[in-house]
Amino acid sequence: MKAGRDISTTVLIVDDQTMVRESFRAVLAAQPDIEVVGEASTGAEAVEAAGRLRPDVVLMDVRMPVLDGLTATQRILTAATGNHAPRVLVLTTFDLDDYVYRALRAGASGFLLKDSPLADLVNAVRLVAAGNALFAPSVTRRLIAEFADRLPHRPDHHGLAQLTPREREVLRLVARGLSNAEIAAVLVIAEQTAKTHVSRVLTKLGLRDRAQAVVLAYEAGLVVPGE
Q1: How far apart are CA 85 and CA 154, in angstroms?
Q2: DSSP state at residue 149
Q3: Which residues contact 152 (CB under 8 A, 6 or more apart)?
Q4: Whether residues 123 and 187 fall in one domain
Q5: Rounded to whole angstroms, how far apart are CA atoms 113 and 120?
Q6: Whether the Cβ atoms of residue 214 and residue 135 lie closer than 8 Å to each other
């Protein structure tokens, strides 16, 4: 950590291309509230580095040698304990990618296209570090809807029975990409009340964040593509 900087978010960059890692490091390290604590070029290195460095956010490439980003994400999140589970932000070249969908199901907090502006990368890191999910762009919901619709059978999500009618409606609104403020406006309730509802939904369903809530809502048929 550099002297005089109030670092609030630590980041591990995982990509098999040196130029990509260097580019991401340069833009992130220039931010006063972000510190790049490490790099990895394979999924296996990512798992080891995440356990050793305990970063707040892991930027995870999808396709890598030795161990792909999906498997690395699963291992990192399975091994993490307590409040030290990192947020995983998946990086991909393709917006409709089965690996990305599976990474979201495994607990990743969202994904970002590699050709996005670097300013979007900085904002994405801050967003997921704050506990939010990067799924607001319609392309992300399209990704989830695309692959959820291909499932031969709907997964049996028993936890949905625990939700009250209001909580089920909140889950639908989360899946449509609404923020707490927007949910509050739709339901005509206070924003803090909306936030509480969202928190209870995640807790009852055993979900890490909104990204997993979106995946579950589509898989369970609570939200349908194009709705």
Answers
A1: 28
A2: T
A3: none
A4: no
A5: 10
A6: yes
Domain co-membership, 117 together with 162? no
Instruction: Annotate 4-66 with DSSP letters as a single string.
Output: T----EEEEEE-S-HHHHHHHHHHHHTSTTEEEEEEESSHHHHHHHHHHH--SEEEEESS-SS
Tokens in use for 138? Answer: 């319609």
CA 126 to chain centre: 12
On whether both 25 and 114 belong to a single domain, the answer is yes
**Residue 205 maps to a domain:** yes
Distance, CA of 86 to CA of 37 (rounded, Å): 13
Count CB-CB contacts under 10 A for residue 76: 27
Calculate the CA 70 to chain-centre distance: 13
pLDDT in tens, 44-99: 999 999 999 999 999 999 888 888 888 999 899 888 765 578 999 988 876 656 67
Domain that holds residue 92: 9-134
Q: Tell me, what DSSP letter sits at residue 86?
A: P
pTM, rounded to two decimals: 0.72
In angstroms, the CA 113 to CA 9 distance is 21
